[in-house]
Write a structure and sequence with these properties.
With 135 residues, the chain is mainly alpha-helical. Helix content is 74%, strand content 0%. The chain is built from six helices and no strands. It has helices at residues 2-12, 15-28, 42-62, 71-89, 98-126, 129-134. Helix 2 runs antiparallel to helix 3, helix 3 (42-62) packs across helix 5 (98-126) and helix 4 packs antiparallel against helix 5. It starts with a helix and ends with a helix.
Length: 135
């Protein structure tokens, strides 16, 4: 019974990332996206920020706890960036850009790093008082 509950919790942790994966896929299927920044390479900023958010939630779902495990969410999100760029090449009005993928990957590193910072910042709060007293 406990094993089944653990699996359900692990599965539920993927909901925010799955939502972002789905929204990204939908937006990649559109010929144009309203409200995109108009400045030079503004789309790269959007790619970076969106994939940073995705990487944050993939890091949460993967339960990373150290810099050593940072590679896993970055690899997952970067691989998705490649798949997304290939997908865009089949969408009229869109193209496949290695520069967009680089922005995706930079965002993946940023998002996973921010997750680790948030985890580190809040980890003392999650410990019980007896553990804090030992520090």
């Amino acid at each position: 019974m406990e094993q089944n509950t653990s699996f359900k919790i692990k599965l539920l942790k993927w909901i925010p990332a799955a939502f972002i994966f789905s929204a990204s896929w939908y937006l990649s299927s559109q010929e144009t996206i309203e409200g995109m920044p108009e400045f030079w390479n503004g789309d790269k900023l959007v790619h970076c920020l969106c994939f940073a958010g995705l990487s944050f939630w993939v890091s949460f779902a993967c339960s990373i706890k150290s810099k050593k495990s940072l590679w896993l969410p970055v690899a997952i999100v970067s691989a998705y960036g490649i798949i997304d760029e290939i997908h865009q090449s089949f969408t009229p009005g869109r193209d496949c850009s290695p520069f967009d993928w680089m922005a995706d990957t930079i965002g993946a590193v940023l998002g996973a790093s921010v997750f680790l910072l948030v985890l580190h910042f809040f980890s003392p709060i999650r410990r019980n008082p007896s553990q804090r007293a030992k520090e």
